[in-house]
Design brief:
Blueprint lengths: L1 H27 L4 H9 L2 H15 L7 H20 L3 H15 L7 H18 L3 H14 L6 H13 L3 H14 L14 H4 L3 H16 L2 H6 L7 H20 L3 H16 L7 H15 L2 H17 L6 H11 L6 H18 L2 H18 L4 H18 L1 H14 L1
Helix pairs in contact: 1-2, 1-3, 3-4, 4-5, 4-6, 5-6, 6-7, 6-8, 7-8, 8-9, 8-13, 9-13, 11-14, 13-14, 14-15, 15-16, 15-17, 16-17, 17-18, 17-19, 18-19, 19-20, 19-21, 20-21
């Protein structure tokens, strides 16, 4: 197997380096047709995949020396990277894991880039495959072996895996550690509770909201939204994503950090002038804070409409939860409930198509709630919908099921 794999791997390398020249020569040299058949008829990617499969079947112990282990690891990385580009993540994860097995965590010297590619790829592929419990074993290796600033993207993938497993307290703890190392000013234990949303803003939140007003007056937010399609560097985007995840974990736990992290998210986007799809949730929640804490509907509407514009410009890359936050927490203050309900039902349908059952059930729960309060659906029909969907909602999202059950009682 090693001999076959090495032979095919060498052919693939030569073919990849000079494929056009080889095809041209082969077409004019009939006497060498058989010799050149492997070069002209089989793509390099296919050859390297077959070669890698042969080597993997032989196992890491088949490598003669360290140079060969590095070579075979690189082959696995190349195959895995190509599969990832085509979103074939289960197969990609297989090759990432095989490449890691050949290296034995050898991060010395020239191996660092190769190891980084394998472990980062395995982190992303594990999350994409729904294997959230496996993400940490790859992510932590990356975090331990690269400068902190370069680990932000991987830190987000680790936090995203915790979100998938609904470990909200761990999300907050991990995110706080990241932000404090980045120099964010976050109190150790905020001296207020989530109930502040019902009784006025505590001073620390008021100060940060005033800071946001100052930042907003110094930049053209609408222009930044129009430029939102430009690419931000991975660190800034990773920070925004971590802020987003922590904010959502905060609202699920009714954490005292929730209003603080909303303000931090909006402030960071304005300071760095990086307003993209990651800003939809913070802007929506900030609208909510303005209304609940200051009863400022005029400013709240501005932030809600900004979030709506961002989503409309980036709808293809938006997540189900982003749509839920916008249409369930911000826009219902300013748009007819029927319109929000329609968007939430579309989010439910999309979530079911892509396999995001948890978010899909949350969207369905809000759709039923808004349909009930809007009054456009007859109560007898609405009761039928609740009876039909409640078991499904309860199966995937217990929080949404509790709210739906309460509304079902109100209908009776």
């Amino acid at each position: 197997r090693v001999s076959i794999g090495t032979f095919l791997g060498e052919k693939a390398t030569l073919n990849n380096m000079s494929s056009l020249r080889n095809m041209s020569i082969a077409s004019h040299q009939d006497e060498h047709k058989e010799d050149n058949m492997i070069d002209t008829l089989i793509a390099p990617s296919v050859l390297i995949t077959v070669a890698t499969d042969q080597i993997n079947a032989a196992g890491p112990e088949s490598a003669a020396d360290n140079a060969q282990r590095i070579l075979f690891s690189r082959w696995n990385l190349n195959v895995a990277a190509e599969l990832s580009q085509h979103r074939k993540f289960p197969a990609a994860l297989h090759y990432f894991q095989k490449g890691i097995a050949f290296l034995h965590k050898n991060w010395d010297g020239d191996n660092q880039k190769l190891c980084l590619g394998l472990y980062k790829g395995a982190t992303y592929a594990s999350l994409a495959c729904g294997k959230a419990d496996e993400v940490s074993q790859y992510a932590n290796v990356v975090i331990q072996n690269v400068p902190f600033e370069e680990s932000i993207e991987t830190q987000y993938l680790l936090i995203r895996s915790l979100e998938t497993m609904r470990k909200n307290q761990e999300i907050i703890t991990t995110a706080l550690s990241v932000f404090r190392r980045l120099g964010f000013e976050i109190p150790g234990v905020p001296r207020f509770y989530f109930s502040c949303l019902e009784g006025g803003a505590p001073p620390v939140v008021t100060e940060r909201m005033l800071k946001i007003e100052e930042l907003a007056s110094q930049c053209n937010i609408d222009e930044l939204i129009d430029c939102g399609q430009r690419t931000f560097d991975a660190t800034k985007r990773g920070i925004l994503k971590i802020l987003d995840s922590m904010t959502l974990a905060g609202i699920r736990l009714q954490s005292p950090y929730f209003p603080l992290m909303v303000c931090e998210s909006v402030s960071y986007a304005l300071k760095q002038q990086c307003i993209g799809i990651e800003s939809v949730c913070p802007f929506s929640f900030y609208c909510h804070l303005l209304i609940q804490l200051k009863e400022n509907y005029t400013e709240g509407r501005k932030w809600a409409m900004r979030a709506k514009r961002i989503l409309e410009r980036n709808e293809q890359s938006s997540s189900i939860r982003t749509r839920i936050v916008l249409y369930a927490s911000a826009l219902p203050w300013f748009l007819p409930l029927k319109e929000s309900a329609q968007h939430l039902f579309k989010a439910y349908e999309l979530g079911m198509k892509v396999g995001d059952a948890i978010s899909s059930m949350a969207a369905l729960s809000f759709y039923l709630r808004f349909s009930f309060h809007d009054g456009t659906v007859k109560l007898c029909n609405l009761r039928t919908y609740y009876d039909q969907y409640l078991p499904l909602i309860a199966k995937y999202n217990k929080w949404a099921a509790k709210a739906a059950m309460a509304e079902r009682v109100l209908i009776d």
